[in-house]
Structures are given as structure tokens and as C-alpha cells.
Amino acid sequence: MSTQRSFIAVIGDEDTVTGLLLAGIGHMDAHQNANFLVVDPKTSPTQIEDSFRSFTSRKDIAILLINQHVADHIRPLVDTYAQAFPALLEVPSKDHPYDPSKDGVMKRVQKLFNE
């Protein structure tokens, strides 16, 4: 496994993951570990947590994108994540609009500017 952070990982719904895979972010390492997880109604919060922990502990991932509605399933874990790398970004999905009041990055920015 590479020690450089050169990949983007994604945890999201089928449309989001498919779009990002079509854009070229997909990668499988030598151990057949993918850098993406497709979340559907049958995906348990435990599976999402396991993927989140796996992606945030990998040394080859620079950015972790997660649909905000998926992040809501593991919100305590997402809100306590404080590492610089991989950077954690919550993104909207086609069916779920973005809510800046739930986004940890936006909360920190507001706190920084005392808003």
C-alpha cells in the first residue's frame, strides 16, 4: 500500500458513488479493499461505521466524501472525527438537500468567526 495520500474515498448512495466512480476515483488495492461503499436501505449503521473507520485509518486516502444523509446515521462518529487527513467532507445527494447546520466543518467555521 502506498504511503502517499493519493486517493479519494466515498461513502454514499448509489447515484453519488456511481457518478464518482465514472469520474475515475475507484480503486482496489492488492487486498481487494475498495475505496467506496454504496449505502442502500439494507446497509446497517455498523457497516457504515466500519467503512468510515477503515477509510479514515488508511494512509493512502486524502479525502473522504460522505453523503450528509448517510453521515446522519453515524453522526456521533462523524462529529468526533478531528484528523486533518483524510479530510472529511459531507456532500448532498440527489434526493437529500445539503443542510449546513449539520456539517461539522461548517460548525467549526461558524465557531471560528463567532457566528
Q: What would you say this structure looks like, in words?
A:
- With 115 residues, this protein is an alpha/beta fold.
- Strand 1, helix 1 (14-22) and strand 2 (36-38) form a beta-alpha-beta unit.
- 36% of the residues lie in helices and 18% in strands.
- It has one domain (7-112): 3-Layer(aba) Sandwich (Rossmann fold), CATH 3.40.50.10580.
- 27% of the residues are buried.
- The protein contains five helices and four strands, in the order E-H-E-H-E-H-H-E-H.
- Strands 2-1-3-4 form a four-stranded parallel β-sheet, with helices on both faces.
Question: What are the key terms here?
Answer:
Rossmann fold; alpha/beta; ATPase_V1-cplx_f_g_su
